Amino acid sequence: MPGSKRTLGLVALLLLVAGRPIHAETSLTPAGAEELMNDFWSLVSDVSSRVGLQARAPARPRPQAIPQGGRPIDLSDLSQPTVIEDRLRAAFQPGADLRVTIPGGTARRGDYSVGSAESLSGHLLVVDGNADVYGTLRGNLVAVKGDVVVHPGGVVTGDILTLGGEVRDRGGEIGGEVRSLRSAILSPAAPVQSEQLSPIQSVLRRLAGVLGVFLTLSVLGFGLVMFGRQNLEVVSDTVSHSFGRAFVTGLLGQILLLPTFGMLVVGLILSVAGILLLPFAIAVFAMLVVVGVVGGYLAVAHAMGETYTRRRMALGVIIGSPNSYRYLLVGLVALASLWAAWALFGWVPVAGSIVWGAAFFISWLLGTAGFGAALLSRAGIKENFSGRLFPPEALTDEYLWATPQFGVPAGRRPGTRTPSRGL
After folding, report:
1. Which of 96, 91, 50, 95 shows the shortest CA–CA distance to 70?
2. 3-state SS class at 60
3. Is the pLDDT of residue 161 over 60?
4. Could you tell me if residue 106 is left (phi over 0), alpha (psi between -120 and 50 degrees) or otherwise beta?
5. Which residues contact 344 (CB under 8 A, 6 or more apart)?
6. Quick one: DSSP state of residue 270?
7. Beta partners for residue 181, in sequence order
8. Which of 209, 362, 386, 212 is nearest to 297 (CA)?
């Protein structure tokens, strides 16, 4: 039909442009038309694959032979791809010259093709490039970070393994098995350069981190003083007057944190209404833990700043405005100085680890005490352990003027005389 002839003519024109031979006996016969169409679709897929490969990997290394040397890599058995991958990973060290020895074979870098008139004997390793087979390869073929394309007329008598690529059979012949493995081998074409910081750069980066944490805690602390000053002071006084008890309570709270969370989740799951409330319960539990830890740590900073400021005032130093803002800021500066020391000396091989361990231990100790104080005071609601409550005897006349039982020196009643020693 005219339409079929027109289509065959277009296919023949495309094949001529592509340089494909056209035989006279395949012009208008049905078998010839089918052969032309097969060649046409093979050409289209070949062009599209090449365009796609260029779009995916625009920067290919220059094709070249890989020098012999280094650890030998045996490619005679490809039945265990992970073993081959481990051997290649050990050979491809970033920053070092690539030298590979393939017993009974060759190694190439970049795109490599076996011509239609070539017959290559031995195993072949292609690194950072595609392997196009138009001729005959008598051996196994391994491609690293590249694809293997077996074109019409191409023959691979052995197995094919791709690490980080795929195998595309365009009408060739593969005598062995085909395996593809997603690999993370770092080939020399694109080595990952680890970031090497100088001591000054590392110090500046650590100081920036410490400063960021300090500013964040300062903002949170000032907000807590503004909206919850009374609760913060109660927790702070609990830390000051019952430090040991607060530390033990905080330690037990840390131990029982996960079991309590598990009991909460299991208890809610056992009921239908509890399942609906489970997400909200988890969110509230996490929020309470964060508030307890952060609030307790800020209370410790408040207690440290208050103790330091009052001692200076006792020595006669005039303080302009001794308030909770000043206490909190002074305490946070003292706590940040621990990590500032690590930021300055963290690059020293042994001393940096010691300073980091000391800063972490002290921060954990004080944070545990603050968390325990928050638990003891019920987030600053109860004043039982803050040293603010006096026993009932302290409000009676007998306790004030007679000899007490709590170690307070007795005073003389007004209007009475102190008996003499002779009477």
Report:
1. 91
2. coil
3. yes
4. beta
5. 203, 206, 207
6. T
7. 163
8. 362
Looking at the structure of the chain, the number of domains it has is 2
Count the Cβ atoms, other than its own, within 10 Å of residue 175: 12
Longest dimension (CA), the chain: 150
Look at residues 156, 152, 71 and name the one whose alpha carbon lies nearest to residue 142.
Answer: 156
Structure tokens at 5: 């002839």
- Residues 290 and 330 reside in one and the same domain: yes
% the chain with pLDDT above 90: 38
Give CA 109 to chain center in angstroms.
Answer: 33
Inform me whether the pLDDT recorded for 285 exceeds 70.
Answer: yes
Q: CB atoms < 10 A from the CB of 219, how many?
A: 10
Strands of the sheet containing 141-144, edge to edge, are 64-65, 105-109, 123-127, 141-144, 160-163, 178-181
Write phi, then psi, for 251 (nearest 5 degrees).
-65, -45
* Alpha-carbon gap, residue 277 to 283, rounded angstroms: 10
Helix (H, G, I), strand (E, B) or coil at 72: strand
Within-domain flag for 78: yes
With beta carbons less than 8 A apart as the criterion, state whether 73 and 125 touch.
Answer: yes
> How large is the C-alpha radius of gyration of the chain?
40
DSSP bridge pairs for 224? none
Q: Which two tokens stand for residue 63?
A: 């094709």
CA 382 to chain centre: 41
Q: Is residue 345 part of a domain?
A: yes
Distance, CA of 12 to CA of 8 (rounded, Å)? 6
Percentage above 70 pLDDT, the chain: 72
Which is it for strands 105-109 and 64-65: parallel, antiparallel or unpaired?
antiparallel
Q: Which domain holds residue 344?
A: 199-382
| E strand or H helix that includes residue 306 | helix 272-314
Does the residue 190 lie in any domain? no
Give the list of residues 6+ apart from residue 260 with CB closer than 8 angstroms, or none.
Answer: none
Alpha carbon distance 284, 287 (integer Å) = 5
Is residue 177 in some structural domain?
Answer: yes
Nearest to 246 by CA among 380, 390, 385: 385
The structure tokens 């004080």 sit at 366
DSSP string, 403-418: --SSSPPP-PPTT--P
| 176 plus 275 within the same structural domain | no
Of the listed ranges 67-71, 243-247, 280-284, the one predicted with least confidence: 67-71
